[in-house]
Each structure stands twice: as structure tokens, then as C-alpha cells.
Amino acid sequence: MRAGRPLLAAVAALLVGYTLSISLSGYFVFFAVSAVTAALALLGLGIVTGSAGMIALCQLTFAAVGAWVVSLFNVMEAPGGFIVWLIAGGIAAGAVGILVGLPALRLRGVNLAVVTLGFAAAADVTLQQIQFPGSKDGIPVERPDAFSDDREFFFFSVIVLVVCALGVFWLQRSRWGASWKSVAFSERGTAAVGQSVRTAKLTAFAVSAALAGISGGLLAGQVQLPYASSFTPIQSLALYVLAVMSGTQLIDMAVFGGIMWVLVPELLKRFGIPQDWGFVIFGALGVQALTSGTNLGEELRAAWWTRRGKGTHDGGASPASPSPAPSSSAPAGITRGERPAGGLALAVDHLTVQFGALKALDDVSVEVPAGTVMGLIGPNGAGKSTFVDAISGFLPRATGTMRLGGTHLNGLSPTHRARLGLRRTFQQDRVPPSLTVGAYVRFVARRHVSDAELADVLGFFGCPPAGTRLSSADIGTRRLIEVAANVAAKPSLLVLDEPAAGLSHEEHVALGERLRTLPSTYGMSVVLIEHDLDLVRAVCSQLTVLDFGRVLASGPQDEVLANPAVIKAYMGETEML
Ligand SMILES: Nc1ncnc2c1ncn2[C@@H]1O[C@H](COP(=O)(O)OP(=O)(O)OP(=O)(O)O)[C@@H](O)[C@H]1O
């Protein structure tokens, strides 16, 4: 059913396109092709901006690359005809997209905006000089034989849009799509689940630019003699604003945006107002969208879900409620105790982290026995989160040695460490709200997770069903989902940084029970950072106490909690057992 829905929508779109192609007057057929080409470029912007959260102000420059390649192949009478040239234009634009995306690996926000706008301006000047191949000699771009007149070419452009939209639909639901949404929300969170931030950003730029290239190639076929004036930086800017305003990561909103792109200037013309005022209208709507932090597509969908009174995509699930603590039996599909107990899950020697004059960690040596839950405790500022950042690769300047099982971690990136089996959660929310629970768990797991396995791991932690939108879950529930997703990844070591924050007392207790059984149920070792000593006592067989960046005591729970130095420094001299 679910796989069939987009195909049904595609068939319906083709039928509408065909009907329009035979019924619209000649004047409107031209506008209709323009709306389709704009929708394609907006679909691309929806990926790079809407999904991946990067500013790209050169979308029509990528379109110009596609148009240029089509014009060149036309002049060269390259084999394959228009359709092959169109694909080549898309590939060329995608390649240029990767080049332009390289600065995005280091730049963000306004800096990235300046770079992409600068690229658009430079390309504009170049295009004005060199012109499109064939334009000086007036060699028109040859359309496909079966789609040579304007009506037929409109239907052809609808077919291209539908094919691209189907591709985007599936890409958005693929690992790439999840990585775009994740990187938009948190680069650290993305790297921590073993996803390369570089790949996420570059694929977003490449796919987005390729779609723009195809859009430009179509435009070349539409006007047959393309000119630089169709691809100016100011138009790219207006297109970006339109994408932000309508939320074109949603396919229907890209089509809506495409229609707006031609409709607003046309309406202005009819009222005798200069068409350039269209940019002002788009600008005002864009400012409204940016300041309100939402867009038309999301608002329409939010209204739809509110009317239906549901927080889920696929029906009727309520957010997580405290569920009884689990038995220690393993959920179906997750194998029990794959790693033998014994040996060390993590061995850290002489770890030192310095922030300016402050030694946040000072010669810290910690061992986590395999198959145990080790509590890492200490007062605020003791260095617990710094320890997690250091072992998970986010503090490359940390000195000392770190081994996961028998593997040295020093010098490895966070992504690499995560792929080796070291997973961590964060104190701050790093769960991308634009995904569903199921899509997020599968993204974090980095392996095939069957529906039954997914339901089991979510049930084990008392999380909402897979179809629930993460944006509808409260912060405590999102933390639970983050833990469940990282458990589904089956790491050898799972480090949880205050996972109980934001949970109610009952949820706290239930979570403690679940965490205690993780080594026996899922065969992983756990490091738990937690301030709640009741939880620590209930869950951790081993403890390490940090104070002012140094290890105060480490070993079995009862020994550590009875250590006078721990009682004195960590608890004050009050009775704690
Ligand atoms: N990026 C940073 N730059 C400078 N100082 C930092 C940085 N990160 C942490 N610190 C300092 O390092 C020390 C250890 O901080 P850390 O966050 O690791 O403590 P913590 O034990 O996790 O505390 P909490 O329980 O409050 O989370 C603190 O003094 C903190 O101010």
C-alpha cells in the first residue's frame, strides 16, 4: 500500500499533465512549462535548504550549467538526443554542486550564503561573456521528436518532473535523506551515529544541483535559445526565498512554489504593476517565514494533523507513557549476549584534556569491564561530559590512549569510532525532529532493522510507535528514543550522558531497570553518566568517580561508595549508603 501510494500519485500527476497539455491555451502552455522547470529547481532547493539546512543562493547557476551542456551537445549534434543531453546536464550540474558544496563542509549560515551568492555572480558575469553555445549563430535546441511542439514538450516536462519527484521521494526516505535531516539539526549528533557529515552535505548539494541542472536543460528545450538573463543571481535569491517560504522539501510544495513563480509576476503584469515587484512579494513572504521559523507546507501539514487529532503518520499512536519495567528476556530479532563477557570493553589510560588553563581531565585512567554497566559520577564540572567527548572523538587534542576492545581509538574521527561500535548519547537534544521514530532508529542503527525488531526495541524502552513524528514527542521521550536507537545499533559500548533527564519519576525507575539488563539482553557494555544516585545504585555494578578532572575512585559499586574519599569529596560527609 505504502509503496503504491507515490506511484498512484505519479500516475495521477501524469494524467493531470496530459489533460492540461491538450486543454490549456497556447499562451498558458508556455507558463506551464516555466512552472514545471521552476518546480524542479525548487525541489532541489528543498533538499539542500529544507532538508539539509544549508543556504544555497546559486540554484539557477546550476540550472545554467544544465542548459549550457544541453546547448553544447545540441550544437555538437551529440548522439542520444535531447533526453541524453538532459541527463548529462543534470550530471554536470551535480558535479559542479559538489565543488560548490566543498566550502559548506567548513562554512555555515551567512558565510555560506556569501560564497554561494559570489559563485552565482561570478558565473553570471562569465555567462554574459561566453554566452550559451549556439546562441550567437541562432542554432535552436532540438527537442525530442515525440515532444517537439509546445504542448507535447509541456507533457514531456511533466514526465521529467514526475520521475524526478519519485526519485526525491525515495531518496528522502533513504539513508541519504535521513542524513540530510540529521545534519541540519546537529552535525555532532550525525557524526556520533557513524554518518559522515561530509557525505551528508555533499550528497545534498549534488542531488540539489543535479535537479537544477535538469531544470535548466528543460528550460533550454523550452526557449530553444537560452540566454544568461534567465539565470541571474537575483532570480536565484528569489527562488531561495520562495523555497524557504513554501517548504519545498515537500514535493507538493515544490509544485506549488513553481506555480507561484510564474503566477505572481503574471498577475502583477495584468494589474499593470512591473513584474520585478514579484521579487519584493517573495521577499516579504520569505521574511515572514524566516522570522516565524516555519513555512507554508509545514503549517498546512500541522493543521492537517491537528484536525485529525493525531501525532503520528500512520495512525493513532500516543506518545510514550511509563510502561512496566521489562523482564530480562531479549526482544525477538535481537540476539542475546553476542559478545562474551570478560576482558575490557574500554580501556582509557592517562587521558588529559586541557581547555586553556583549565585541565578538564587530568591523567584519567578508566577501565570498563565487558558486559557491565559502569556508572561515571561526580559533581557538576567534574569532567564527565568531557570524558565522553574525548573517548567518542569530539576532542581530537585529548592526550592519552583509548582502546575499544582491542582497537586503538586515538586519531580516529567520531564517525569512525561510532562505526567501530562506540555509541554515545548527548545531554542536549540531538534527535532530528523532522524524522519519524522508525526512520530515526533505522538511520542510527546503520543496519537492516526489520519491522518486528523495530517494534521490539521501541517496546522495550516504552517508546512511541515507529510512525510517530519526533517533533510531536516531548524531550524526555526523545531521549528514550535516542537510547533505543543506539541500542538497535548493537554497539560494543554504549555511553549514556544523563539519559534520564526530562523523565518523570516512574519513567526514571523503568529506565533504570531497562539499562540494568542491557548487557545481558543486548550483549553490550554501558557507561552511564547520572546525577541520580538511586538510579546509579540500582543500575551500575561498577563505578568511577571523577572530581576536578581526576579519578577519585574506581571499581565495584559497594567498594567505591564506601570509599571515605568519595564520601568526603562527592557527597559531603553525610551518610550515603
Ligand atoms: N569547550 C570548553 N571550553 C572551556 N571549558 C570547558 C569546555 N567544556 C567543558 N569545560 C569545562 O571543563 C570542566 C568539565 O566540564 P564537563 O562538562 O565535562 O563537566 P561535567 O562533569 O560533565 O558537568 P555536568 O555534570 O554539569 O554536566 C568544567 O569546568 C567546564 O566548565
Strand and helix map with partners:
Blueprint: H1 4-23, H2 26-51, H3 59-76, H4 81-101, H5 109-130, H6 150-172, H7 175-185, H8 187-192, H9 197-223, H10 233-246, H11 251-270, H12 277-292, H13 296-308, E1 344-355, E2 358-369, E3 373-377, H14 384-391, E4 399-404, E5 407-408, H15 414-420, E6 422-424, H16 437-445, H17 451-460, H18 475-488, E7 493-497, H19 505-516, H20 518-522, E8 525-529, H21 533-539, E9 542-547, E10 550-556, H22 557-562, H23 564-570
Parallel strand pairs: 3-8, 3-9, 6-7, 7-8
Antiparallel strand pairs: 1-2, 1-4, 4-5, 9-10
Helix pairs in contact: 1-6, 2-6, 2-9, 2-10, 2-11, 3-4, 3-9, 4-9, 6-9, 7-9, 10-11, 10-12, 16-18, 17-18, 19-21
Bound molecules: adenosine-5'-triphosphate.
Characterise the protein shown here.
This protein is α/β, with parallel strands linked by helices and 577 residues long. Among the domains are: 13-233 and 247-255, no CATH class; 344-429 and 491-570, Rossmann fold (3-Layer(aba) Sandwich). 56% of the residues lie in helices and 11% in strands. It contains 23 helices and 10 strands. The chain has a 6-stranded mixed beta sheet with strand order 6-7-8-3-9-10, sandwiched between helices. Helix 6 (150-172) runs antiparallel to helix 9 and helix 16 runs parallel beside helix 18. The model is unreliable at 311-341 and 573-577 (pLDDT under 50). Bound molecules: adenosine-5'-triphosphate (ATP). It comes from Sinomonas terricola. It is found in: Cell membrane. The chain crosses the membrane at residues 29-48, 55-76, 82-105, 112-133, 153-171, 202-225, 237-264. InterPro entries: AAA+_ATPase (IPR003593), ABC_AA/LPS_Transport (IPR051120), ABC_transp_permease (IPR001851), ABC_transporter-like_ATP-bd (IPR003439), BCA_ABC_TP_C (IPR032823), LivM-like (IPR043428), P-loop_NTPase (IPR027417).
